[in-house]
Structures are given as structure tokens and as C-alpha cells.
């Protein structure tokens, strides 16, 4: 099932998607919007899985190098241990 909606986009966003259609990267404007929504939903699901796995939400700015460097240095055992302590 699909729904038709009238939407308004900033000129630069509409032009960007129009260019994707023109170059054949997406079949249509609607298909391009559907791909963007699917990607955003996948990102939301990934963020939820990360929060569940690490026991904390990702920071507002996930590009922060210090945060990621420290997080990636943690072993699985450390993460599981921290989660067990948080649950207690």
C-alpha cells in the first residue's frame, strides 16, 4: 500500500534529488525519497542496537574522535562487565 502526500522541500534539496533522477541514480523523485526514508530507518535501528549492546546511547556527535577511540579500545568483556554492573 502507498500513500500520496504533498510535500515541500528546500530548493537545494529538491534540486539535489532532481539531479539524482536525471542521472539515473534513482528511478523517480518518489523512489529517491523512499530510499532516503529507508536509510534513515536503518540508521535508527542501528542506533537502537548500539544502545542495547553498549548500554548507553551514542553521543550527539558520533564523529568525536576521542569518544570513538576510547570506545573501540574497550574489549567485549569490558563492555559486558560494565553492562552487568549497570543492571545491578
Describe this structure in words.
The protein is mostly helical and 88 residues long. It has one domain (20-87). Helix content is 67%, strand content 0%. This is Arc/MetJ-type ribon-helix-helix transcriptional regulator. It comes from Nonomuraea roseoviolacea subsp. carminata.
SSE layout and pairing:
Elements: H1 11-22, H2 29-54, H3 65-73, H4 76-87
Organism: Nonomuraea roseoviolacea subsp. carminata
Protein name: Arc/MetJ-type ribon-helix-helix transcriptional regulator
List the helices and strands in order: HHHH
Q: From the helix content, strand content and strand pairing, which structural class follows?
A: mainly alpha
Instruction: Classify the beta-strand content into a percent band.
Output: under 5%
Number of helices: 4
Report the uncertain regions: none
Strand element count: 0
Structural Rg: 19 Å
Basic shape: elongated
Distance between the termini: 46 Å
Sheet of most strands: none
Mean pLDDT: 84
Report the helical percentage.
55-70%
The total tally of domains equals: 1
Amino acid at each position: 500500500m502507498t500513500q500520496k502526500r504533498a510535500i515541500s522541500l528546500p530548493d537545494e534539496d529538491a534540486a539535489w534529488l532532481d539531479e539524482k533522477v536525471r542521472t539515473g541514480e534513482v528511478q523517480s523523485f518518489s523512489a529517491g525519497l523512499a530510499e532516503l526514508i529507508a536509510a534513515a530507518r536503518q540508521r535508527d535501528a542501528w542506533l537502537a542496537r548500539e544502545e542495547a549492546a553498549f548500554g548507553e546511547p551514542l553521543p550527539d556527535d558520533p564523529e568525536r574522535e576521542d569518544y570513538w577511540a576510547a570506545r573501540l579500545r574497550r574489549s567485549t568483556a569490558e563492555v559486558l562487565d560494565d553492562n552487568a554492573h549497570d543492571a545491578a
